[in-house]
Amino acid sequence: SEPATQGYITQVKTPVTMSFKSYASALSDPGELMMSDFAKFDRPALLHLAYKALASYAEKHGGDFPTPGDAAAAGEVYDLAKGMDSEKILEGDGADASRRIITHLASGSRAVLSPMCATLGGIVGQEVLKACSGKFTPISGFFYFDADETLPESVPSDAAPTGTSRYDSTVAVFGKAAQEKLLGLNYFLVGAGAIGCEMLKNWALMGVACGPGGKVHVTDMDRIEKSNLSRQFLFRNSDIDEFKSATAAKAAASMNDKMNVVPYQEKVSPETENVFGDDFYDKLDGVCTALDNVEARLYVDTRCLFYHLPMLESGTLGTKGNTQVVVPNVTENYGATRDPPEKSIPVCTLKNFPNQIQHTLQWARDYFEGEFRQSGEDVNSYLSDPDYAANIAGDKLAAVLSIRKTLVDDRPVSFEDCVIWARLKFETIFNNQIRQLLHNFPEDQVTSSGTKFWSGSKRCPRPLVFDVAARCEDAEMRNHFDFIVAASNLRAHMFGIKGRTDEAYFVEVLQNVIVPDFTPADGVKIAANEAEAKEEAKKDEPGDMEESDADAVLAGLPKPGELAGFKLNPIEFDKDLDDHMLFVTACSNLRALNYSIPTEDTHRSRAIAGRIIPAIATTTALVTGLICLELYKIIGTPQKELKIDAYKNGFVNLAIPFMTLSEPTAPAKTKAVVKGKEWNWTAWDSLDVNLGDITLKEFITHFENEYGLDVSMISHGVSILFSFFANKKKLAERMTMKMSEVVESVTKKALPGNQLFLVFEIIANDLDTDEEVELPYVKFRFR
Fold first, then answer.
1. Residue 348 catalytic?
2. What residues contact residue 151 under an 8 Å CB cut-off, 6+ apart?
């Protein structure tokens, strides 16, 4: 037989039996300990010794740990550690640092810090799930994690607990001054999804913005959907369809009634700078992102750069998670390094040559949008817009033909018409179109190079014969029947016709549907690859002939006045609506059956078609805990200026398990020579001008006097405000105008009342050397 040229490889993971030491055995001989920070190679062994000493202390004192700030008790723990130190861990060059770690551990051993609970809780929670499910690899033996960079050099003198404050734990570890800073923080949380909810919970427990002057602004434009409830734990069934931000703010306030949370339902983007403008960012201490897309993160990053605000960034993907801390003038900004963009699926693959279930699901989603949303919107636009013909964007002929098909040719008057329409659609999509494709490219066709056309990623399709009782093996779904039920009900909803789902009715109607015969046609062009698809798209651009054809079709349509009051109900795809997912799943699976691709059930299809990013509570808790530990550093709990190596970016995979904390990258520097002195500036730098709303002439003179620069061009966004080659008369007029007036005059847009700054880019030469000087942007405060 011929060797296989196509197929699917299924990865089968072989179960592994793992064995572990007993607790008593591991206590005396822990073996190799899992690392979390490769800059601290000796830390796990030190912490193992310290915890053994702490346990010994508790055993001697009736189970009690040392009281916070009790130097004698902390000293006793250290002495116990020295007595157990057979490996001489506490000796040598790092003796003082080791003593500091053990002293802090002893003094803070009664403290319960929310970020540390979230971090370790996420790890422990996943280990419990591993034990229950047998899925993923458990941690072998002990795992120790520390964030000693958050700690002051010595135990705070005011660490003793009051016994009455909910913040005693924070005071015990960091002192009262640190807690006061947390209470007065003004932070902007962008996103109230899985990470946003967990962040608000942590902040409520930490006391963030729970004092006079403190405030948390949280924004999320989304409403709560049913699928959110499994991973966004501040929401309940009764909250479905409510705004995420308002619901999350209310839930956080119920955890700490002193927390001042202001919810918004605005997208953070250039369009909402009237809400989140200069006056808004001017009052903030920092920004925390809990977003699900890179574009929004990059925009927030530009705001943090401009206003010199720290940015706390994190994300999860199943058991994987990452955190990034951005500190002004210390670390690089978020947008300094970017991942390559995700590859889109080629059009010809979607249309004719799918080979993965992701391809068929994307195709089914696109079909849903075109058939049940776009066609309805086109009809409504035609009926409501008197100048519809003049306002058509794109392919005019295709748009009006779609309207004629929906409004005239295929317009149903009863639910039975909808069932017949669905049955004929099945025949067209899953039988006729496939037969036409095979007519163009027969199964035995070979290419010009002599290889089989249907090979590699191109899977030879087969037409489907309708069978109301058919059931697929992989997903065990009745895709033929499900497609008819879902399609006919969606069609009925569009036209305001009452639907039904009883099987007996469908079987009876389907028996009487007359399906026209189909014969593949010659001369039908089908693109065999992406290059041909692009070429066809160019040929399909409308010409004069098509314009006249479109006008003829429009003239034959019923006049809007004849259909007064008639309106369709366009349907926007919602992954949480079962009837939407039934159609998309059945449609995708039928196309998969055409191409011998393994099918998927509704649950898995929902995740793929809805582009749901897998989020689990354990990873979410872990990354949020890591971010909140970085927040401690930013507000100054170490009581000293930190260098870059004290901050940590995190990368975790709870499944393997793997965790590493690493030093952030420093910002890249650009060399410039100003007034004979070298200046290495970064993306955090700007040329700040705080002289009020001066004139253009005064602005140019300022750079001559202050920096020894001859300014040859000034731009604002895409607008050039000043250049040496501009019209002399216009330049003379602008020279006496204030900078804000010049901007408004050139852009023809009024500046918002809440805007305090203008950003200018300048090209300038050194007055002495006439060399061009590369400069950062100018941050001009005019109000």
1. yes
2. 100, 104, 173, 174, 637, 638
